[in-house]
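hey so u asked for the seq, here:
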Amino acid sequence: MHYGYNAGTKAVLSLKESTKKISRAASIVGLTVIGALVATYINFKFGIKIHAGSINVDLQKGVIDQIMPQLLPLLYTFFCYWMLKKGRSPLTLIGVTVVIGILGSLFKLF
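ran it, structure tokens below
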């Protein structure tokens, strides 16, 4: 009886350690999937061009996407995450996104 009890408690501790490893691996896979979704589904078309003499350089395609493709969606995602950590509600983030979209459309930035 004592052997069964000791073996049972050791088994529970072993399972607890294994589930921590599985949970960590699942969270890493989940973050990877979220990163891929951000790069795939969030699009920014930044319409500002730099005029250097007779050469026109599109700021997003010619400079920002050359440094790191899909950098602007990543930065906006980090901004939303930061706002959530500051205690803002998701409705506030939706409102900010709509306002940024409208202002960008009015000033022909996006």
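DSSP finds four helices and two strands in the chain. The CA atoms of residues 13 and 85 lie 33 Å apart.
lmk if thats what u needed
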